Each structure stands twice: as C-alpha cells, then as structure tokens.
Amino acid sequence: MESKRCFANRFDDYAGSLPAGQHHEAVVPWVAATIERILQQVPPLEGGLAAAAGGLYGGLAGMAYMLYHAARCPLLAPARDTYLRAARRLIDACVRYEEEWGEPDADTRAAFLLGGAGVYAVAALVYQALGLPDFGRLLGRFRELSQICAPVTFLECGSDELFVGRAGYLCAALVLKQKLGMETLTPGQIRSICQAILESGKQYAVKKRKPCPLMYSYYGTEYLGAAHGLSSILQMLLSYYEYLQPADQELVWQSIDFLMDQEQNSNWPPELGETIKRESELVHWCHGAPGIAYLFAKAYLISKKPQYLDTCIRCGELTWQKGLLKKGPGICHGVAGSAYVFLLLYRLTGNSKYIYRSQRFAEFLFTEEFKAGSRALENIYSLYEGFSGTVCFLIDLLQPNQAEFPLFSIFV
User: Fold this and answer.
1) Where does the chain cross the membrane (predicted)?
2) Angle made by CA atoms 151, 157, 162, in degrees to the nearest 5
3) Cα angle 260-400-128, degrees, rounded to a multiple of 5
4) What is the C-alpha separation between 6 and 18, in angstroms, rounded?
5) How many Cβ atoms are within 10 Å of 254's Cβ, its own excluded?
6) In terms of CB atoms within 10 Å, which of 253, 334, 366, 401 comes out highest?
7) Is 228 annotated as a binding residue?
8) Mind giving me the DSSP string for 284-338?
C-alpha cells in the first residue's frame, strides 16, 4: 500500500563508494538559480510591514538567514556581497516590524522561530558580516528579552519549547555564540533561564504525576519531538550543561533516558503515551526520529556513551526508509529536513555512507516524481517549509564537515 506521507525509497543503498564526478558542479548553479528565484518572490516591502511578519519559521527573516548562510559558503563567494545586501534589506524590514508592529505581549517578543528573538539574532549576524557597527545595538535588543522569559510561567501556552519558549531563546543565543565567537548573554542570565526551564519541568512533572523528572506541555499537549517538545528542551539544557548544578544535570540525564525508553521501532510518537500506527507514522524533524536524533547526538558528544550514538543511527535507518516526505522540500517536515539527519550522522561517525544517502535525497528533490507528488507550497521562500531551507541543506551538502541543521547546532 502506498504511503500517504512518504514516497517509496527506490535508491540502492551505499555500496562502498560515492558516485564519480564533481557533485558541486551541479549543485552550485542550482543553488544560485534557486536563490534568484526566491528573491523574485519577495513581496514588496514598501507597501507596509505586514510582509515582514512570520519570524524565522515562515517569514522573510528566515530567508535573510538563508542568504547569510549562502554568503558564508566559499563556493558562492562571488555573490557574497549581493546576498548580504539582500539579507540586510529583508532583515531591516523584519526588525522594523518587530519594533513598530510586533505584538506588545511577551509571547512573540522573546520567541525564537516565531518572533523577535530570532529576528534580532539574525539581524545581528547580518550586520556583523557587513561590518556595520549597529550590530551591537541589535545584540542589546536581543539581550533585553532575557528578562521576559525568566519568570517560570511567562507564557500560558507553555513557556519552555523551541518556537516561542525559553529553549528557543537559549537556542538563539547559541547561534550567536557560534557565529560571533562570543557569549551574548551573561552567565547569570543563562543560569536564570536554565533554572526556570528546570523548575518549570519539575513542577509540571510533580503536578501531573509523570514518571519523568522533567516534563512540559505546549497548548496542553505533552509533545516529545524537536518542534515543541521534550527533546529540544533537553537538548538546550545539555547545550548549557556547565551552567547546571550536578543534581540538575542528573535530572536531565534521567529525562533523556526516559525519552529513549519511549522509542517504538526507531521512532517516537508526537506526544507522550501515544502508540505509533505505522500507516500514519510521522517521520519528520518536527515530530519523530529526524528531530529527536539531535538530542541523542548531543548526549553522545557530552557523555560518549555508545547507546546514544546507536539511537541516532537507528533514527537514520528509519529516515532512509521513510524520509522522502510528500509535504515538500523543507526542513521542518520535508525532504531536506530528513537529509540533514544523514549529514549529522556523517559528522558523528565519518562514515561516507551518510554522504551518499544525503546526496540521494538531494537528487530526489529534482525528480519529476517529487515535483508531481509533493504538496504545493504556500510560501516558496520560507526557511522551514519552503526552498530557503532546501538551499541551506544543499549548501551544507557542499561542505559536509561543517554541515548542521539551520539554527539548531549541537557542535557548539
């Protein structure tokens, strides 16, 4: 029976050698042409700031990040200045939107993927790359947001997840640290946000009598995946491991092992306690193994325990089987998001099999089968659902030794 969610993977698996020929000779012109096509889709910014809404997830800010990422790739060096100038034009509109039209309440101002925190972080990166002194002001705006998300229950919908909550704010700070080579937040600010995440998770677990020492919900649902769930919250706590007390570090490990025990045939249900039905199984970055793999990769890098790497490898096997997704080319629930798991595993293991697999998934994006059978995109330039994320993936395929899922690094 044909799957509703994914195309059949008809590729032969790795046989010990990568295909001959210069892979980047085909990819570089496609990347350049796709960026050109995306730039032509930008709504006019002069007619008002509404076009600048949507944050990093679905708005122009995500496209600005893609242009920044492209500008950093040596193989695209001739277009560096063009890409950075275009990125600045877009991100300036997004900053203006946040400052003039943005919601006055806390939920979007401190949000990483859906609001102000992500916009200010990417604006600072673009300004710094252009050598503009104003990037310090943008970092200041980002830093001010730490006060918003410090209270344990600053959001009614759930204060800790990646899109709008504290884990996202810490993730944005991690991006800044990695790209700028400096910590944007003070140790005190980092500790207070980590402490709020821990306190929130402990309180919820006790109140709801959960078997896991740290548990969270978002809009009343106990998600497990990377988009809104436990895995990315724990991943961020591991990313700031040295700021945690030993007793809290132990609670994090216990929670990671609890999540590992929720595995069902190399995958995880979207929410705690569900049973996966194979015919409607979610194998996405947002929900399922392709996103949860990053937590176990981080756990492996810190602890060096082989069971965490083994879990990542199982995630990769499932993604090879079921990761040619029909929802489009994007990174949230599309083919590029699946392929990033192979680039992650390549960096963890050095095994060329994973380069091969990511190249095959890239190849599939250009097939008639994919073009005819994948869902039409509402917004081709978005970072998470559209072609901006696909461009980031193809750029990373050109430089696999430094490849990583956009804005979600475990190597910092």
Assistant:
1) 110-132
2) 75
3) 100
4) 25
5) 13
6) 334
7) no
8) SSSSSHHHHHHHHHHHHHHH--HHHHHHHHHHHHHHHHH-SBTT-SSSSSSHHHH
Residue with tokens 């402490």: 195
Mean pLDDT, all residues of the chain: 94
* Tens digit of each residue's pLDDT (9 = 90 or more) over 154-167: 999 999 999 999 99
Q: Which among 238, 232, 120, 99 is positioned nearest to 165, based on CA atoms? A: 232
List pLDDT tens digits, range 1-52: 678 899 999 999 999 988 765 567 788 999 999 999 999 988 777 666 777 8
How far does Cα 122 stand from its chain's mean position?
Answer: 14
Q: What's at 43, amino acid-wise? A: P
* Cα distance between residue 384 and residue 57, in whole Å: 5
Residue with tokens 């705690």: 272
The one-character DSSP state at 72 is T
Q: How far is CA 58 from CA 48, 132, 301, 382, in A?
A: 18, 26, 31, 5
Indicate whether 106 pLDDT > 80.
no
73 is in an annotated binding site: no
Give me the long-range contacts of 241-249 (CB less than 8 A, separation at least 24): 241/302, 243/187, 243/190, 243/191, 243/194, 244/194, 244/198, 248/194, 248/198
Looking up tokens 């998934």, which residue turns up? 361
Cα→Cα distances 367→6, 41, 166, 171, 372, Å: 14, 23, 40, 35, 9
Nearest CA-CA partner of 410 in 317, 244, 298, 315: 298
Give the number of other Cβ atoms within 10 Å of residue 134's Cβ: 12
Rounded CA separation 89/337 (Å):
27
